[in-house]
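Deliverable D5.2: sample structural annotation.
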Amino acid sequence: MTNKSDLFTIPARKGRAVRLGAGEAIQIVNTHGAQVVDTWAFNAEDPAEFVSNEHMRATLGKLWPGQGDPLVTNRRRAIMVMEEDTSPGRHDTLIAACDDYRYGLLGCEEYHDNCTDNLRAAMRRIGVDITECPSPLNLWMNIPVAADGSTSWGEPLSKPGDHVILRARMDCIVAMSACPQDILPINGAACDPTEAHYRILPRTV
């Protein structure tokens, strides 16, 4: 059983990374209901293998994973499974992690917190350096796709307390960023990024 003492914070606008053994799981909680959490998973033995959205879309035949679906790496293996999803299930695999260049294009003249730097900082905190930022699984990010292929910036459909559980199929590192986007409404109409939370769940028997 888990309790509140098992709950860890992903601070607003910042990132965290944790190691999971095969069979363990992570529960990621959208605490306030409107926060996008950019999420990555890397092979703990070789971070050059990671969840790859383009490989996952080809495997699943759809734009984002749902409950019961594997998260597929760039070597076409399942690294995790989305074991549970209490939200409406709208996530995103199309949009790259925000970076300082992106905010410059949006009009920022000074440095802006961003998911790319949050990933690198989170990985360094656990002693891992990475050379690239893979495209993240953007949990709860709502990117409507029209029939003509055009996209738009929707608000999350999730509710406070919605969560996903991702169970590891191999030893892995999960990194998460509470997206700092405060210009577009991807973190809700208020454009006010908030913290999210996570807990580690044990192996199932």
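Annotation notes: Strands lie at 8-10, 15-20, 25-30, 37-43, 70-72, 78-85, 137-139, 162-168, 172-178, 196-201. The helical segments are 53-60, 100-105, 115-125.
The annotation will be released with the project's public dataset once the embargo ends.
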